[in-house]
Write a structure and sequence with these properties.
The chain is mostly helical. Helix content is 34%, strand content 6%. Strand 3 and strand 4 form a beta hairpin. Helix 6 packs antiparallel against helix 7. The longest helix is centred in the last third of the chain and has 23 residues.
């Protein structure tokens, strides 16, 4: 999960709120005509990655507006930009993981790690096998988040593995083959940096935090191996 730093609400939403400030009954999410503008602002803010899964979101129509605190219970937050993130899939499409699985669950800091939490990136560990685990086995909220969003769904695991392989970071299924070109420690360090760079369209690498974590551990292991091989005591 990548930490999302919220910016100011888009001008279109701010103007709509101002125009209807005297008719507060109109100010509900269902009545809001600015959803397209909100969705685009969220995607730009998130580098066109799903807030929960870090899957790439190609276009605004491939995402929906997710309320971290559900609208059915927290009506006062229904049009608050600070409570909104963009997630896949698009409206009307079903997935067996992510935001659609979370659906209407009432979440708080005790049971759920939000991408809006500054600590979220440190609370999950991504492995070279494509799976994700709590960084601390006692972190109940991290465990529950993985379960609630099914972050180890087979499709997500396979997609993470494919992304790692694009960077030359090969997991168990290719560990014994000599037909692939493995990344050097230097290349892995560069991969960790590149994963967090926006391209010219403002997009981030899919599963960027997973790539960064695996690449950094990979580089450390390769550097340690090199030190052992060059040790005068060897």
């Amino acid at each position: 999960m990548r930490h999302i730093v919220k910016g100011d609400e888009p001008k279109a939403l701010r103007d709509w709120k101002r125009e209807n400030r005297e008719t507060t009954h109109v100010l509900t999410y269902d009545n809001c005509p600015k959803k397209n503008e909100i969705r685009l602002a969220l995607l730009i803010e998130q580098g066109f990655l799903c807030a929960y899964t870090m899957r790439a979101i190609p276009t605004p129509r491939d995402a929906h507006i997710e309320h971290v605190r559900p609208r059915w219970k927290y009506r006062e937050f229904s049009i608050e930009y600070a409570n909104m993130v963009a997630c896949c899939p698009g409206d009307g499409i079903h997935l067996d993981y992510g935001a659609k699985l979370k659906d209407r669950a009432d979440v708080n800091d005790e049971v759920f790690v939000s991408p809006l939490h500054g600590s979220c990136e440190r609370r999950f560990v991504y492995r070279i096998d494509g799976r994700v685990y709590p960084a601390d086995n006692a972190d109940v909220a991290a465990k529950n988040t993985i379960r609630m969003l099914d972050l180890n769904h087979r499709d997500l695991v396979d997609s993470r593995i494919q992304q790692l392989e694009r960077f030359g970071l090969y997991g168990p299924r290719l560990r014994r083959t000599k037909a692939v070109r493995w990344a050097s420690a230097r290349q892995a360090r560069r991969a960790a940096e590149r994963a967090l760079e926006h391209d010219h369209d403002g997009r981030l690498t899919a599963f960027c935090i997973a790539v960064r974590q695996v690449a950094e551990r990979y580089a450390c292991a390769e550097e340690a191996k090199a030190r052992r091989l060059t040790s005068p005591n060897r």
